[in-house]
Design a protein that fits this description.
The protein is α+β, with helices and mostly antiparallel strands. It is built from seven helices and eight strands. Strands 1-2-3-5-4 form a five-stranded mixed beta barrel. The mean pLDDT is 90.
Length: 230
């Protein structure tokens, strides 16, 4: 029997001469992998973070079969080199943070909102950093600032503190200051320089590697660093 669901495309790769192996984070069932027969022709308009309505069937929940996949939210960001790179980055982060079968409708709605935001946003200078910080909140380990004058980030505890610690991984500097600015929703930050943004990305990805099992270096890492130089 066929079923329908909404999904956010995270990955696609060739499966045969005409078919694709695709991964969606779905509204009902979380991360799911599918064979999309004839997908190389049918899925020409599908791209990372695209919000899609999928029709599928199958008994093996680890690998189902898609028969239809249609975009729900019209988008153009796939034609923008910077936005499309950010979309690939977001999709890669999501794939490393979720597992097959994990159902989380709230996370789906969060990702859908970010897909729509990427389409509309004009200032992308902090978009990857903001996404990582907000994603950490959804996953339950958003950094905590108890006091505004704390400037040292304890990655193990996930808190800002006054002093460095010999027993935990602690960082300070312009990148950490920028993370703190974003956490405090300070849109008037003066720390949007290239060095601060790159340091912030390094610290946040290190933070994810500590709190997300098997979170390894991203393939899109170097390209996103170039975007943060803008």
């Amino acid at each position: 029997m066929k079923s329908t669901d909404y999904g956010i495309l995270l990955h696609r790769s060739p499966y045969s001469n005409s078919s694709l192996l695709v991964a969606f984070f779905t509204l009902k069932n979380g991360l799911q992998k599918f064979i999309f027969k004839g997908g190389r022709k049918k899925a020409a308009g599908l791209f990372p973070i695209a919000v899609t309505e999928i029709t599928y069937y199958g008994r093996n929940i680890n690998l189902l079969n898609i028969t239809e996949a249609e975009l729900v939210v019209p988008s153009t960001f796939q034609f923008d080199p910077i936005k499309s790179t950010i979309a690939f980055f977001m999709a890669e982060v999501i794939r490393k943070c979720v597992h097959v079968g994990d159902s989380d409708p709230n996370l789906f709605l969060f990702l859908k909102a970010y897909s729509e935001s990427l389409e509309k946003e004009k200032d992308l200078s902090l978009f990857p950093l903001e996404f990582l910080i907000n994603m950490s909140e959804k996953l339950g380990f958003k950094p905590l600032i108890e006091n505004g004058d704390m400037s040292i980030f304890n990655l193990d505890a996930g808190v800002f503190q006054h002093t460095h610690s010999s027993e935990a991984r602690t960082f300070s500097g312009s990148g950490v200051d920028l993370i703190k600015e974003v956490l405090e929703n300070n849109n008037g930050t003066k720390l949007k320089n290239e060095s601060a943004k790159r340091e912030a990305l390094d610290v946040l990805l290190n933070y994810f590697s500590i709190h997300v099992p098997h979170f390894k270096k991203l393939e899109s890492y170097e390209i996103v660093k170039e975007i943060l130089s803008a």
